[in-house]
Amino acid sequence: MKRLAKHVIFYAVLIGLWFLLAKLKIWPPYVFPAPWNVAQSLYAGFEDHSFWIAILITMKRMLMGYGLAVVLGMVLGLGVASNKFLEETMGGLLVGLQSLPSICWQPLAVLWFGLTEKAILFVVVMGALLSVTISMEDGRKQMPKIFGMAGRNLGAKGFKLFWYVLLPASLPFVLNGLKQGWAFAWRSLIQAEMIFVTLGLGQQLIMGRELSDMGQVVAVMILIVVIGYVVDGLVFKTAERRLHQRWGLAPAS
Amino acid sequence: MTPNPAVQGTHTTDHRSLGRGNVNRWKASHRPVVVPYSSSAPGKFPKVSLNGISLSYKANDGSRLLALDNIHLKVNPGEFLCIVGPSGCGKSTLLHLIAGLHQATSGHVLVDDKIVEGPGTDRILIFQDLGLFPWLTVGQNVEFGMKMKGVPKEERQRKTEYYLRLVHLAQFKDSHTHQLSGGMRQRVALARALATEPDVLLMDEPFAALDAQTRDLLHDELERIWSETGRTIIFVTHNVREAVRLGDRVALLTFRPGRVKKEFAIDLPRPRVLEDVTVAKSAREILDELREEINKSLQEQYGEEKVS
Question: Which domain covers residue B168, as residue numbers?
Answer without folding.
Answer: 124-197
